[in-house]
Amino acid sequence: MLKYQHIADELENYIEEHKLQQGDKLPILQDLMIQFDVSKSTVTKALDLLEKKGVVFQVRGSGIFVRRHKRQGYISLTSNQGFKKNLEEFHITSEIITLDIRKPTKEAAVNLNIGLDDDVYYVKRIRYIHGQTLCIEESYFNKSIVTYLNKEIITESIFNYITEGLGLNIGFADTYLHVDKLNAEEAEYLGLQKGDPKLEVESVFHLTNGQPFDFSKLTYNYVQSQFFLQAVL
Amino acid sequence: MLKYQHIADELENYIEEHKLQQGDKLPILQDLMIQFDVSKSTVTKALDLLEKKGVVFQVRGSGIFVRRHKRQGYISLTSNQGFKKNLEEFHITSEIITLDIRKPTKEAAVNLNIGLDDDVYYVKRIRYIHGQTLCIEESYFNKSIVTYLNKEIITESIFNYITEGLGLNIGFADTYLHVDKLNAEEAEYLGLQKGDPKLEVESVFHLTNGQPFDFSKLTYNYVQSQFFLQAVL
DNA sequence: CAGTGGTCTAGACCACGAT
DNA sequence: TCGTGGTCTAGACCACTGT
């Protein structure tokens, strides 16, 4: 385990367990260096991680403080690993509609940077939050990278399988958002009326080497759609 | 100017000017160290900045590569300084509806962490993109921090004035997104029908010392609403 | 002015990728 | 095995905050 990762985890746990609030002060750099027996740069790197993640903010000449947004029940748009943490936090479950190998749509092929004749795993699921319909999810996985999938795997966390099972390293994602009106089929799945609002979230996930491996399109039930985003400016 | 900031700017300009594409390789660390006459850590810090910003991705054992998302015409949800760059890129203009000093709504008071009897500057604007209505914007500024505003200032960039004119340092923002249906008044402003979809974006902006100074609520025309987000996982 | 975080260095050593 | 990026150190010096 990397030292700075370890320190970041420890501090985050500490904040969580002691229910520290926005503005609460953490120990100064000097103390953290001694406590974890590392150099200043390593502590700094750990704190930069936490700052990027929206957990703390640092004020030169003053100290390190806890950052905590006020609202509960919002799904993070930037949380790592495709909703992994959110899954646990919000009790999100899913029902599989389709799983097969097929040729990509033109849109999927463009986003995955493959040809129209290459194979993809196509997954369609309905996701539920606290028993309510949250969203429709359609995913296209480049089969030459994600070589195998089955119903059991996609019932659990696909991303977990990709990293643990296949040993692939997920690097970054481009995400696009649109708001539009539901068509009849989507309304049916989500238990809403045709023409009701929807939030469409398209993501292209890449490996650390830059190869796109997953193009996903999520259509959210607007009633359940509350998202948040913590930015450092 | 900080060295790592300078290097980051130079590299970003280079990528822009030479129209480098996704996957194009940049010089190796060693060369960048020599070129800019700085230590390895400084180059690394510059590259980490660019990576966070979604401009490059680094692959251990291989090199540093340009990252570039495929779609044009999307507004960045994470671009710095309240849309400053987007303003230029998309020719966003605004029309002022209201500017006055008043008491905050309960909601604004909670988000700004002030009392119901404290003063705020209230600003209501309509924003246009390429001449089309983009969104309705309502902002509440804590008057004890943002001590003065006038029509001229809010016609230009408010955030620019806050940093340059008032010498304040903007630190971070919490942003919340909802999708809902337009009410009659909003529909009127946006030139849409009541019941049409809307995207509501609420942001709380904080100074570097953690004090919230601006609570803004933006209601977007769903037709014009295309956002993107570059995440590092 | 003392306290505290931020920048920068030079260099050792490690881990991953390509060949 | 070599090229390349990642982690970590010890320490000098700088810049902002608060008393």
TrEMBL record, chains A, B:
Annotated keywords: DNA-binding, Repressor, Transcription, Transcription regulation
CDD domains found in the cross-reference section: WHTH_GntR
GO biological process: negative regulation of DNA-templated transcription
One term of GO molecular function: DNA binding
Domain HTH gntR-type: 1-69
Superkingdom per UniProt: Bacteria
Protein name per UniProt: GntR family transcriptional regulator
